Amino acid sequence: MAESIRTFSLQWRILSLIIALLVYFPILSGSYFKPFNVSYDHRALIIAGKRRMLVSAGIHYPRATPEMWSDLIAKSKEGGADVVQTYVFWNGHEPVKGQYNFEGRYDLVKFVKLIGSSGLYLHLRIGPYVCAEWNFGGFPVWLRDIPGIEFRTDNEPFKKEMQKFVTKIVDLMREAKLFCWQGGPIIMLQIENEYGDVEKSYGQKGKDYVKWAASMALGLGAGVPWVMCKQTDAPENIIDACNGYYCDGFKPNSRTKPVLWTEDWDGWYTKWGGSLPHRPAEDLAFAVARFYQRGGSFQNYYMYFGGTNFGRTSGGPFYITSYDYDAPLDEYGLRSEPKWGHLKDLHAAIKLCEPALVAADAPQYRKLGSKQEAHIYHGDGETGGKVCAAFLANIDEHKSAHVKFNGQSYTLPPWSVSILPDCRHVAFNTAKVGAQTSVKTVESARPSLGSMSILQKVVRQDNVSYISKSWMALKEPIGIWGENNFTFQGLLEHLNVTKDRSDYLWHKTRISVSEDDISFWKKNGPNSTVSIDSMRDVLRVFVNKQLAGSIVGHWVKAVQPVRFIQGNNDLLLLTQTVGLQNYGAFLEKDGAGFRGKAKLTGFKNGDLDLSKSSWTYQVGLKGEADKIYTVEHNEKAEWSTLETDASPSIFMWYKTYFDPPAGTDPVVLNLESMGRGQAWVNGQHIGRYWNIISQKDGCDRTCDYRGAYNSDKCTTNCGKPTQTRYHVPRSWLKPSSNLLVLFEETGGNPFKISVKTVTAGILCGQVSESHYPPLRKWSTPDYINGTMSINSVAPEVHLHCEDGHVISSIEFASYGTPRGSCDGFSIGKCHASNSLSIVSEVKLYCLQHWQLIQSYEGI
Ligand code: GAL
């Protein structure tokens, strides 16, 4: 007996070893999948010989830190994504011509490997033009300096550089064995980006460029399909794909190509001074369901995680530092509920339909009413037997509809799709949100309270505690500050001088004012005026180091009254960029600073042509050049203690040290007390900040999901500062004494800066009899002759906290007709008085259960 146990255990060990080798070999050998090929037909991408219905999550790797990547990928997978999609950011990878950077946030290979090891696929959009609200659309600024270059057209110097970079990326991926045929996750690539939008501006050369880009890409032998989005003339062998808020009904330019949606805009970006966009989860789910309903097979959320425009990466002009995008994962990587959960349920329902969706070559259409329709997919299942799935849509924006389908009655809420994975039972309706809602709370940072702190009730009030009581200050010189300046007769274009190494460019000229001018002004008016035909993005005008005024705009006329004294005056113009243009034709010609004529008006002897004056130029700030924001260099500068009652001052550097908040919740700086500038933590550039108030009007008081979405619908935050919280990734923080440095342009109060943490502090769930049973109750459906009686399963509500948190109290529960929303509920006309105590007991059970798991794990 003992012998046989030993033999068995030996066999078992050998077997385990073989299993382990089989499981881990691909990973040890650097591959994540058994190598497979990808092709396509008119219906779908064909992965390892099988048509697939794919859901993709857009995540831009430099908009997060490498430390955040795994969690973002895991949450994408948990949310039902099969694929991750990203652009490749040329200006991040080749900041200086010929000098490549694939480190840190630009460690593309690492990002792709993490995707592979999570079992997801990757759609890599190389561009290399990307748009993306990214500085200069991803182009390195040095590209402008190549003689004779014209971007994105049939232009040899441009094509040469583009080919070099695209080849570099494809080779990098191939060398790291990251293509699917090598066992890696890359299943698809993209060349160019929405070139169709600008192609006409380039005439025949534009058309030739499209053909060249396609054949150049195909010539690289990457071995996976290439996409061109919004490109109706995409050549054969390149799939033209759709971008937009809705892409149902999109038809590619050939019957041999599948219907792909490369950018499903699930929210939108924000400009300084703009309101915050929100796309309702119900409408987004409707758009996605309609897409698969009408023949779509690959859909990517742009963005699934938007993240942050760290440093000076935000495009523009005037795009804010946050790139939250109202995406299912918020700027910090926390789930945005109910969007994340509702989409997860949607994806689960679509997955249940996949066998039928791929079995049919096209859906069968059935009209159910004037604004109601069904699309039915049926065919032979892969494992034998018949499969059938149906989508019932009500595109009426106002009214519910009762329809008959296959002999059964269905009620469809307005602007919704019901998904029937067995052509009979409704697994999901896009307008019925069963997922929890969560409201993010922003808490003042507190010292660690030990492990029990997570049981404490979330503090809803912002009880402010400021980051530091002790600040140092340093004045930035106004005007020319160093030897590396130069003088030139005439006004130079801003980017030609700065090469975008800094936002700032000083221009100084001397103006001599006669006694006659002074008496002329006394008689005719109080001053003279600087007048410039056209400028962007910020212009500050100084006379004798005193600020006369600032102008903000995008190619607007600048008119700034100035006052001179008799004799010599220094006229200083500071031009500033706030993100380079990232969209449109002829980007290389766009430039920054001034255009047209510049003059000084109001002089006795007529206007003074400033365009012809002699100007001394200086790029950037002294503090930038001295790198006083870094841990290594900040102490070399002559800081002095800032008095608490110091009056706000322009062009100041501030620094302090702070300890990070306890725990793992995302950290933000609240910079509401500041004016405008840039901030660094431990030398890491967290971005531009600007305490600008958003437009007063245009925000809807309520948000109705029904009807076509656009970025002006359901906006919030009108009349409030556009962005007050700035993400400081946890991995940039040390356990204590973190250096915070700010450059403040307009005057602010650093003593009121606070550090906070963000968490999903309030959770709500609502469910009614009209909700469908939870999707996990669906096993593999028995199609057509299904015997499952899933309708007898009651709907459930599930509440989940972010990692490290538990539900600490139930504040409201009502079985009845409660009113209000997650921000504040009230009891309706009908209410069961024991609701709260019953739900609280359930919660207590959860807590005990959770504690049990914790202590078990602790053993
Ligand atoms: C698209 C573009 C994306 C992004 C998006 C708006 O047109 O392809 O890169 O800019 O618009 O967020």
TrEMBL record:
Reactions catalysed: Hydrolysis of terminal non-reducing beta-D-galactose residues in beta-D-galactosides
SUPFAM superfamilies in the record: (Trans)glycosidases, Galactose-binding domain-like
GO biological process: carbohydrate metabolic process
Uppermost EC category: hydrolase
Pfam family name, one: Glyco_hydro_35
Main location: secreted
Cellular component aspect of the GO annotation: apoplast
Claim: Cytoplasm is one of the keywords in the record: no
Superkingdom of the organism of origin: Eukaryota
Transmembrane segments: 12-33
Gene3D superfamilies reported in the protein's UniProt record: Galactose-binding domain-like (2.60.120.260), Glycosidases (3.20.20.80)
GO molecular function: beta-galactosidase activity; carbohydrate binding
EC number assigned by the record: 3.2.1.23
Family: Belongs to the glycosyl hydrolase 35 family.
The protein's name: Beta-galactosidase
Native source species: Arabidopsis thaliana
Gene designation: BGAL9
